[in-house]
Amino acid sequence: MIFIKLNTVVTGNSLVSLTFHLFNLHGLIEHFQLDTMKLRRFLVMVQEDYHSQNPYHNAVHAADVTQAMHCYLKEPKLSKSLTPWDVLLSLVAAATHDLDHPGVNQPFLIKTNHYLATLYKNTSVLENHHWRSAVGLLRESGLFAHMSLENRQLMESQIGDLILATDISQQNEYLSMFRSHLDRGDLCLENANHRHFILQMALKCADICNPCRTWELSKQWSEKVTEEFFHQGDIEKKYHLGVSPLCDRQTETIANIQIGFMTYLVEPLFGEWARFSNTRLSQTMLGHLGLNKASWKGVQREQSGSGDDVDPAFEEMDSDILPQEPRLS
């Protein structure tokens, strides 16, 4: 797996190394006159605020999503229209999109009366926390202290817009808007608001693109996110909290979870993304997605003797039922 191997090579610093490289590659350090020591300090703080004990939502996942976001930014339709500001927002949001993730989902935080659920009034609890944590580190690092207050506030707000878009409970809303724009053919990337919306969709794709990778990579990430789900379920059983859907290792399987995830979330999103950006990359991702789904159905048939079971949790598409962040990229 590319980022697990990278993480080993750079001694656990994949997020710092990759993001610093991408800032340099895109010319952001020079364009925004960034202090490289402050940039590295900010990235180190970000990396350290991810929980390494999480099987899935950790700094390696953040690096993986950041790399995917870079690939989408380089797609012809986007790259010719994006400004340095757009690229800066995108990379910071990708690197911080799961910052300080506790390894459990929103329903768990709500039913345990966690302070974050109270603070954010049970609404996009994790995403709000990731965003606010990112803002805190940006301010502490002083990375953009040389910019005007107005620009810093705008940046913080727009980074929030990107991170909040990754709330899986809002998937249908964003997908419906995206599909409507594509049906009408009215997306204009010279329009800053339209570009920002596409960046939201790009980050959503980067966040759940794992089923669009090769089987070897996709399977390993799938195992990691399921391990995290099942760990939550074990805690819920221990404290008699009622096991959340997709989190019971006695009744769920990786294959069932993945087939439902691909059917109800990944396929619709990447189908529309390919309408927007019909490139070799998009077609390759859809090809891997189809092959991976077929592979999981093969695993499912071996386990159950049938290939038609789809986890009912995904059919509900309800924020109280779905894990808040089944993020597989």
Question: TL;DR of this structure?
Answer:
With 329 residues, the chain is mainly α. The protein has helices at residues 2-9, 14-25, 28-31, 36-49, 59-73, 76-79, 84-96, 106-111, 115-119, 125-141, 149-164, 171-184, 192-207, 215-238, 254-276, 280-304, 312-316.
Shape: globular
The helix-and-strand class reads: mainly alpha
Low-pLDDT segments, ≥5 res: 317-329
Number of strands: 0
Largest sheet: none
Beta-strand fraction estimate: under 5%
Mean pLDDT figure:
92
Question: Roughly what percent helix?
Answer: 55-70%
**Straight-line distance between termini:** 12 Å
Catalytic activity: 3',5'-cyclic AMP + H2O = AMP + H(+)
GO molecular function, one term: metal ion binding
Binding site for Zn(2+) 1: 61, 97-98, 207
EC number: 3.1.4.53
Protein architecture, described:
GO terms for molecular function: 3',5'-cyclic-AMP phosphodiesterase activity; metal ion binding. Belongs to the cyclic nucleotide phosphodiesterase family. PDE7 subfamily. Pathway: Purine metabolism; 3',5'-cyclic AMP degradation; AMP from 3',5'-cyclic AMP: step 1/1. The protein has 329 residues and is mostly helical. It contains 17 helices and no strands. Helix 2 packs antiparallel against helix 4 (36-49) and helix 7 packs parallel to helix 13. The longest helix has 25 residues, at 280-304. The radius of gyration is 19 Å and the shape is globular. The model is unreliable at 317-329 (pLDDT under 50).
